[in-house]
Amino acid sequence: MMLGRYTWRQLTRRPGRTLLTLAGIVIGVAGVVAISLTTNATRRAYRSMFDDLTGQAALEVVAVGDAGFAPSQVTQIAEIAGVKSTSPAIQRVAALLTAKGPEGIMVLGEPLASERTGASPHEFVEGADLSTENDVLLVKTLARNQKISLGDKVKLFTVTGATEFRVAGLIEPRGAANFNGGMVAFIPMATAQRLFQLGDRVTSVQIMLDDGVSAETIEPKIAATLPDGLSVQPPSTRGQLAQQSLIATEQGLSTLSAVSIVAGAFVILNAFLMSLGERRRQLAILRAIGVTRRQVTHLLLREAVVLGVMGMILGTALGVVSSIALSGQMADLVGVSLPDIELSWQPFALAVAFGPGMAVIASLIPTIRAAARPPLADLLGVPTLADAGARKVPLVAGLVLLVFTLTCVAALLGGFFPGSFVSWTPAPLMGMLLVSIILLSPAAFPYAARAVAALLRPVWGIEGRLAVRQLERNSNRTSLTGAVLCVALVVTIAMGQSIRNNIGDLEEWTKKTITADYLVRTTLPDLGFTINALLPEGMINDLKPLDGVRSVHPLNFFQTKVNGRQAIVLARAFEDDETATLDIAVGDRDSVVRGLLAGETVVGNALAQQLDVTVGDELEIKTRSGLKSLRIAGVVTEYIVGGMAIYIQRERARELFGFDGADVFMITAMPGEVDPLGKVLASFCDSRGLNLQSNAEFRARISQMVAGVVGFLWLLLGLVFVVASLGIVNTLTMNVLEQTREIAVLRTVAMRRRQIRLMILYQAASLGLASLAPGVGMGLILSYLMNLSTHALIGQPVEFTVSFWYIAGCCGACLVMALLAAWFPARRASRLEIIHALQYE
Question: Which ranges of 115-156 does DSSP label H, i.e. alpha helix?
Fold first, then answer.
């Protein structure tokens, strides 16, 4: 009990240091929790979206390329043991024409009320079931958001044009009505077949299984009965490509959260070392009056645990709040509604691991060393042999960890890690690399500090010399604080350069691949291209005669399997320079275009990496007539669905997949007619409820989609600097405490308050300046390694460029943060009362 009160008294004795240390824990925990909750919500959205759509169905049969098929083709499925029932369905995306423009909506066909054999599956809020062919049921949340009431008229745009419906009923968002946040419309089956030009075909057959029957065991049996062009899959398969495209974003967020944790851990270590240095005599007295080493160890670890638990609670709360804001940015990026944040156990397990766990790990070695020190040596202030030996431990540990980390990086770049292992390696590798840098810094940092002192001694005068002397007096503390600041600079340069390079590569890709002046479509697709409505094929004849139109080219995209993996097929024309716009990574332009016109394919870089294929290899592509082998004519840089895409010449793709309509019409204007054509197209699209995008608007849309998440990345980078500055505040505050009597003596010999402030600010400036050279050098090296690993991780080769203005800005921010962090300790030092300071011990 007595030691417990001692723990609390010690934490409250230095409230400023305690709060700053606590802030380091809170920031690290909040970042981990926010990122974990948001990525879980995003993956859950795509995983459950199509499960909601199919209700209790464990499997579904769909046609390759999402084409329709006759239910008679799958009648054998019902005879398979374990299959409870089958149900044909129509699921197609249309555009709901609203006052704000067209919005993508999933349309489901179902029987009229008079044709049902059982009760309606819907829970009605208002109105009744479908009774005529032009009735529609809407989800109440959708109706409320769009200000639609029972009995109102709404228009749905499909491949056959715009059709008006009467709202017959409003329903609760249950089951299929919960798809994508309630963006669902239920219409009669016959009407759906007519609007989507299906005839008597359906788009899927939902398969329910008997209780206790596994979908994994039944799926191969069903697949064996299916004709060419049909496949069986879990409903969630349709969202897999969107999850694939999120890998790079999730890796960036996870890596930065790991960095903030490492920085926070070393802030804790720094604070603990200062606290132990200040309390050596107190601990020695405790040992002298009978307190055992174990009790001292428990006492000190209890302090770390208390801080860790407090940081965990506050960090978790901040992380939950931050995840709500981040999930909104992710929703803009992926283009679908995300579910509410679900408080599962994983983020809170991480909070426990990186709250109390981080605090205990950071303080464990100093605690053990403090408990093992001879009491007499600390009472007399005599150094021990263990002190000298302990300084070698971080150096050896840092070298071992650095060699191990670089070996892992080399293995990653060399492709020696299995694919399932690669996706989660960046964050731990970055964390280990930073830990090794910090461990090695105490050996290297003093040389940098001496070099800075030598260069600036003539400029700074007596205040600067006194500042440098105080830093040299506490070399371990100075080195550790400088190391954390150096790491902040390393991370900011490396991650910032990586973000800039990737954004630049994305912008360059849009310039090379989307050269049309205007894009006409129904709605903007989501990240996985799972929610998009088709335009009528014949609309091309309405667009071509418009004044100012030079050419119109349709583009289609749909999912299929390539060598057994889900991928997007991009079907478009490649007849001339105007249409053959590709960002070619492997192969030459002429041979690539010739290959496409000859019926070959071009593969995206991420897909090529995952399949381990290149130019000249064959791809097995699932088509409506079975597997077809297509030769690879080239590999291209591709950002659509994370590079999991292939290009096929449109007419060849129509032969293989038999699609109708077009997803996008790409329109090029006559020379000098871009702006006038824009006005003509705006009138054309407004009259039909279509979406028109100029090339500039398309690029702005891409920038807007990534802006929110990139902004969060920049925020995390800023927080890394904040965490590092907390270490500076702790260090300089401790220096001020240790210099209290010295400062009082200096004041008595006529040193002014302004000079005292300058002396403390010079200490911060020395720390910042000494961090610049190693921070910039290691940051550029790490940035280059990250650039190399981009291809190994996601198959995306990104050109490495260095922005000297950005690096200069990072260096300036480093110095500014150091000086800002020093302001409070400097102010405190300058306000010390001379009489009280002379009596300080």
Answer: 140-146
DSSP string of 65-115?
A: GG--B-GGGGGGGGGSTTEEEEEEEEEEEEEEEETTEEEEEEEEEE--GGG
Q: Which of 592-606, 619-633, 779-793 has the lowest mean pLDDT?
A: 779-793
Q: Is the pLDDT of residue 751 over 60?
A: yes
> Both tokens of residue 633?
């004519």
Residue predicted with more confidence, 427 or 552: 552
Give the residue from 174, 194, 179, 182 showing the smallest Cα distance to 134. 194
Contacts of 61 (CB under 8 A, 6+ apart): 74, 77, 204, 205, 207, 222, 226, 230, 231, 232
Taking the C-alpha atoms of residue 589 and residue 711, their distance in angstroms, rounded to an integer, is 36
Asked if residue 380 has pLDDT above 70, the reply is no
DSSP symbols for 693-753 = EEHHHHHHHHHHHHHHHHHHHHHHHHHHHHHHHHHHHHHHHHHHHHTHHHHHHHHHTT--H
- Tens of pLDDT, residues 450-506: 777 777 777 777 777 777 777 777 666 677 677 777 777 777 787 777 777 777 777
Provide mean pLDDT across the span 153-170.
Answer: 88
Angle, vertex CA 706, rays to CA 705 and CA 709, nearest 5: 120
C-beta of residue 367 within 8 angstroms of C-beta of residue 301: yes
pLDDT band for 681, please (50, 70, 90 cuts). Answer: very high
CA distances from 546 to 540, 673, 688 (A): 10, 11, 15
- Predicted local distance difference test score (pLDDT) of residue 222: 87
Q: What number of other Cβ atoms are within 10 A of residue 26's Cβ?
A: 24
Reduced to 3 states (helix: H, G, I; strand: E, B; else coil), residue 154 is strand
Tokens of 569: 């097929």
Among 828, 652, 643, smallest CA distance to 743 is for: 828
Secondary element (H or E) of residue 136:
strand 135-139
Q: What is the mean pLDDT of residues 374-379?
A: 62
Question: What is each CA distance from 341 to 32, 179, 252, 319, 337, in whole angstroms?
Answer: 15, 17, 21, 11, 12
Which tokens hold the place of 500? Answer: 């800039």
CA distance 504 to 390: 47
On the question of pLDDT at 684 being above 60, the answer is yes
Cα→Cα distances 300→15, 270, 621, Å: 17, 14, 63
Region 641-670: what's the mean pLDDT? 86
Q: In angstroms, rounded to a whole number, what is the distance separating the alpha carbons of residues 138 and 123?
A: 11
Give the H/E segment covering residue 645.
strand 645-649
Among 663, 658, 508, 633, CA closest to 572: 663
| 522 secondary structure, DSSP code | S
Average pLDDT estimate for 180-202: 86
How much is the CA Rg of the chain, to the nearest whole Å?
33
pTM: 0.74
Half-sphere exposure of 58 (CA within 13 A, CB side): 17
Contact 752, 456 (CB under 8 A): no
Buried b (16+ CB within 10 A) or exposed e, 717-750: bebbbbbbbbbbbbbbbbbbbbbbeebbebbeee
Asked if 645 and 621 count as a contact pair (C-beta separation under 8 A), the reply is no
Amino acid letter, 129:
D
- Alpha carbon 40 to chain centroid distance? 11
User: Structure tokens of 2?
Assistant: 């007595």
How much of the chain is in helix, strand and coil states, percent to nearest 5?
Answer: 60, 15, 20
627: left (phi over 0), alpha (psi -120 to 50) or beta: beta
Spatial separation of the C-alpha atoms in residues 710 and 28, rounded to whole Å: 19
Backbone phi and psi for residue 266, each to the nearest 5 degrees, phi listed first: -80, -20
Structural tokens at position 691: 């979406």
**β-strands 626-636, 584-586 pairing:** antiparallel
